[in-house]
Amino acid sequence: MTTDNGPEENAAWLVQLKGGDQAAFSALVRRHHRALVALARAVVGENDAEEMVQQAWLKAYGAIATFEGRASLRTWLSRIVINEGRMWLRKQGREVSLDSLPETVDPLAARFDERGLWSAPPAQWHSDSPDALLMTAQLADCLERLLTGMPGNQRALLEMRDTDGLPFDEICNLLGLSASNARVLLHRARARLFGLVDHYQETGEC
Protein backbone atom coordinates (compact mmCIF):
# COMPACT_ATOMS: atom_id res chain seq x y z
CA MET A 1 0.00 0.00 0.00
CA THR A 2 2.86 2.37 0.64
CA THR A 3 6.33 3.08 -0.67
CA ASP A 4 9.50 3.81 1.27
CA ASN A 5 9.20 7.46 0.32
CA GLY A 6 5.60 7.83 1.48
CA PRO A 7 2.19 6.47 0.52
CA GLU A 8 1.29 9.49 -1.57
CA GLU A 9 3.82 8.34 -4.19
CA ASN A 10 1.83 5.14 -4.73
CA ALA A 11 -0.71 5.80 -7.49
CA ALA A 12 -2.88 2.80 -6.61
CA TRP A 13 -3.00 3.87 -2.97
CA LEU A 14 -3.99 7.40 -3.99
CA VAL A 15 -6.87 6.01 -6.07
CA GLN A 16 -8.03 4.03 -3.03
CA LEU A 17 -7.71 7.12 -0.85
CA LYS A 18 -9.78 9.29 -3.19
CA GLY A 19 -12.32 6.49 -3.48
CA GLY A 20 -13.02 6.63 0.25
CA ASP A 21 -11.02 3.56 1.31
CA GLN A 22 -10.81 3.74 5.11
CA ALA A 23 -7.58 1.74 5.38
CA ALA A 24 -5.89 4.14 2.96
CA PHE A 25 -7.14 7.13 4.93
CA SER A 26 -5.94 5.55 8.20
CA ALA A 27 -2.48 5.25 6.63
CA LEU A 28 -2.63 8.94 5.74
CA VAL A 29 -3.52 9.84 9.33
CA ARG A 30 -0.72 7.71 10.77
CA ARG A 31 1.82 9.35 8.47
CA HIS A 32 0.88 12.98 9.03
CA HIS A 33 -1.06 13.36 12.29
CA ARG A 34 1.84 14.16 14.60
CA ALA A 35 3.30 16.81 12.27
CA LEU A 36 -0.12 18.40 11.75
CA VAL A 37 -0.65 18.66 15.51
CA ALA A 38 2.71 20.43 15.76
CA LEU A 39 1.55 22.82 13.05
CA ALA A 40 -1.76 23.36 14.84
CA ARG A 41 0.06 24.36 18.02
CA ALA A 42 1.51 27.31 16.12
CA VAL A 43 -2.00 28.46 15.20
CA VAL A 44 -4.30 27.71 18.15
CA GLY A 45 -1.91 26.79 20.97
CA GLU A 46 -1.17 23.61 22.90
CA ASN A 47 -4.55 23.15 24.59
CA ASP A 48 -6.68 23.19 21.44
CA ALA A 49 -4.31 21.68 18.87
CA GLU A 50 -5.35 18.04 19.10
CA GLU A 51 -9.08 18.75 18.99
CA MET A 52 -8.70 21.19 16.12
CA VAL A 53 -6.69 18.68 14.08
CA GLN A 54 -9.42 16.08 14.59
CA GLN A 55 -11.82 18.55 12.99
CA ALA A 56 -9.34 19.12 10.18
CA TRP A 57 -9.16 15.36 9.53
CA LEU A 58 -12.95 15.25 9.22
CA LYS A 59 -12.76 18.10 6.72
CA ALA A 60 -10.00 16.32 4.80
CA TYR A 61 -11.93 13.05 4.70
CA GLY A 62 -14.92 14.83 3.21
CA ALA A 63 -12.80 16.63 0.62
CA ILE A 64 -10.21 14.00 -0.31
CA ALA A 65 -12.06 13.05 -3.52
CA THR A 66 -11.40 16.59 -4.80
CA PHE A 67 -7.61 16.35 -4.26
CA GLU A 68 -6.05 17.17 -7.64
CA GLY A 69 -2.38 16.58 -6.87
CA ARG A 70 -1.22 20.11 -7.72
CA ALA A 71 0.52 20.15 -4.33
CA SER A 72 1.67 17.31 -2.11
CA LEU A 73 -0.83 15.71 0.24
CA ARG A 74 1.16 17.11 3.14
CA THR A 75 0.80 20.65 1.78
CA TRP A 76 -2.90 20.11 1.09
CA LEU A 77 -3.45 18.83 4.64
CA SER A 78 -1.41 21.67 6.13
CA ARG A 79 -3.59 24.22 4.36
CA ILE A 80 -6.70 22.57 5.80
CA VAL A 81 -5.20 22.66 9.31
CA ILE A 82 -4.24 26.32 9.02
CA ASN A 83 -7.62 27.33 7.59
CA GLU A 84 -9.48 25.34 10.24
CA GLY A 85 -7.25 26.87 12.90
CA ARG A 86 -8.02 30.40 11.78
CA MET A 87 -11.76 29.63 11.75
CA TRP A 88 -11.35 28.14 15.24
CA LEU A 89 -9.75 31.35 16.48
CA ARG A 90 -12.39 33.55 14.88
CA LYS A 91 -15.15 31.56 16.59
CA GLN A 92 -13.41 32.17 19.90
CA GLY A 93 -12.91 35.85 19.18
CA ARG A 94 -9.16 35.44 18.88
CA GLU A 95 -6.80 36.30 16.07
CA VAL A 96 -3.16 35.38 15.73
CA SER A 97 -0.39 36.30 13.33
CA LEU A 98 2.26 33.62 13.16
CA ASP A 99 4.70 36.26 11.99
CA SER A 100 4.40 38.16 15.26
CA LEU A 101 4.26 35.40 17.86
CA PRO A 102 6.56 36.30 20.78
CA GLU A 103 9.93 34.61 20.88
CA THR A 104 12.54 34.65 23.57
CA VAL A 105 16.19 35.18 22.69
CA ASP A 106 17.99 31.86 22.98
CA PRO A 107 21.54 32.18 24.39
CA LEU A 108 22.52 29.01 22.52
CA ALA A 109 21.84 30.63 19.15
CA ALA A 110 25.24 32.35 19.05
CA ARG A 111 26.91 28.93 18.96
CA PHE A 112 25.51 28.22 15.47
CA ASP A 113 25.87 29.80 12.05
CA GLU A 114 23.08 30.94 9.75
CA ARG A 115 22.65 27.38 8.42
CA GLY A 116 22.03 26.02 11.91
CA LEU A 117 25.45 24.32 12.04
CA TRP A 118 27.97 24.56 14.87
CA SER A 119 30.16 27.68 14.74
CA ALA A 120 32.64 25.61 16.74
CA PRO A 121 31.98 21.89 17.42
CA PRO A 122 31.64 20.94 21.11
CA ALA A 123 34.83 19.73 22.73
CA GLN A 124 33.36 16.32 23.56
CA TRP A 125 32.02 15.66 20.05
CA HIS A 126 33.36 12.69 18.13
CA SER A 127 32.43 11.13 14.82
CA ASP A 128 30.08 8.45 16.07
CA SER A 129 28.35 10.61 18.67
CA PRO A 130 25.07 11.46 16.89
CA ASP A 131 24.17 7.88 15.99
CA ALA A 132 25.30 6.52 19.35
CA LEU A 133 23.44 9.15 21.32
CA LEU A 134 20.21 8.80 19.38
CA MET A 135 20.10 5.14 20.36
CA THR A 136 19.65 6.04 24.02
CA ALA A 137 16.16 6.16 25.44
CA GLN A 138 17.14 8.96 27.79
CA LEU A 139 18.20 11.30 25.00
CA ALA A 140 15.06 10.43 23.03
CA ASP A 141 13.02 11.43 26.08
CA CYS A 142 14.98 14.67 26.40
CA LEU A 143 14.36 15.49 22.74
CA GLU A 144 10.65 14.75 23.04
CA ARG A 145 10.34 17.05 26.04
CA LEU A 146 12.24 19.77 24.20
CA LEU A 147 9.94 19.53 21.18
CA THR A 148 6.83 19.49 23.36
CA GLY A 149 7.93 22.67 25.13
CA MET A 150 9.17 24.43 22.00
CA PRO A 151 7.13 27.44 20.77
CA GLY A 152 4.63 26.25 18.20
CA ASN A 153 6.04 28.24 15.30
CA GLN A 154 9.57 26.94 15.95
CA ARG A 155 8.42 23.33 16.15
CA ALA A 156 6.27 23.64 13.04
CA LEU A 157 9.22 25.01 11.06
CA LEU A 158 11.56 22.30 12.38
CA GLU A 159 9.11 19.52 11.54
CA MET A 160 8.14 20.84 8.12
CA ARG A 161 11.65 21.78 6.97
CA ASP A 162 14.04 19.32 8.64
CA THR A 163 11.77 16.30 9.14
CA ASP A 164 9.49 16.52 6.10
CA GLY A 165 11.80 18.44 3.76
CA LEU A 166 9.14 20.86 2.49
CA PRO A 167 10.46 23.75 0.37
CA PHE A 168 11.24 26.82 2.46
CA ASP A 169 9.05 29.20 0.45
CA GLU A 170 6.14 26.78 0.69
CA ILE A 171 6.49 26.63 4.48
CA CYS A 172 6.54 30.43 4.70
CA ASN A 173 3.38 30.58 2.60
CA LEU A 174 1.61 27.96 4.72
CA LEU A 175 2.53 29.56 8.03
CA GLY A 176 2.09 33.14 6.87
CA LEU A 177 5.66 33.99 7.85
CA SER A 178 8.11 36.32 6.16
CA ALA A 179 11.22 34.54 4.89
CA SER A 180 13.47 36.52 7.25
CA ASN A 181 11.40 35.73 10.33
CA ALA A 182 11.10 32.07 9.36
CA ARG A 183 14.89 31.79 9.04
CA VAL A 184 15.36 33.30 12.50
CA LEU A 185 12.80 30.96 14.06
CA LEU A 186 14.21 27.88 12.34
CA HIS A 187 17.72 28.89 13.42
CA ARG A 188 16.56 29.16 17.03
CA ALA A 189 14.82 25.79 16.89
CA ARG A 190 17.93 24.09 15.48
CA ALA A 191 20.11 25.83 18.04
CA ARG A 192 17.96 24.54 20.89
CA LEU A 193 17.95 21.02 19.47
CA PHE A 194 21.69 20.88 18.85
CA GLY A 195 22.37 22.58 22.16
CA LEU A 196 20.47 19.88 24.01
CA VAL A 197 22.49 17.15 22.31
CA ASP A 198 25.71 19.02 23.16
CA HIS A 199 24.66 19.38 26.81
CA TYR A 200 23.56 15.75 27.04
CA GLN A 201 26.86 14.51 25.68
CA GLU A 202 28.82 16.59 28.15
CA THR A 203 26.68 15.89 31.24
CA GLY A 204 24.48 12.86 30.54
CA GLU A 205 21.46 14.98 31.49
CA CYS A 206 18.79 16.95 29.63
Automatic annotation (TrEMBL):
Q: Which residues form the RNA polymerase sigma-70 region domain?
A: 28-94
Q: Which UniProt keywords apply?
A: Sigma factor, Transcription, Transcription regulation
Look up the record and give one Gene Ontology term from the biological process aspect. Answer: DNA-templated transcription initiation
Q: Which InterPro entries does the protein's record reference? A: RNA_pol_sigma-70-like, RNA_pol_sigma-70_dom, RNA_pol_sigma70_r2, RNA_pol_sigma70_r4_t2, RNA_pol_sigma_r2, RNA_pol_sigma_r3/r4-like, WH-like_DNA-bd_sf
Q: Which GO terms describe its molecular function?
A: DNA binding; sigma factor activity
Query: Which Pfam family, any one, appears in the UniProt record?
Result: Sigma70_r2
Q: In its keyword annotation, does this UniProt entry include Translocase? A: no
Q: What residues does the RNA polymerase sigma factor 70 region 4 type domain cover?
A: 141-193
Query: Any keyword Transcription?
Result: yes
Protein family according to the UniProt entry: Belongs to the sigma-70 factor family. ECF subfamily.
Q: Which NCBIfam families match?
A: sigma70-ECF
Task: Kindly provide the name given to this protein in its UniProt entry.
Answer: Rna polymerase sigma-e factor
Q: Which organism is it from?
A: Isoalcanivorax pacificus W11-5
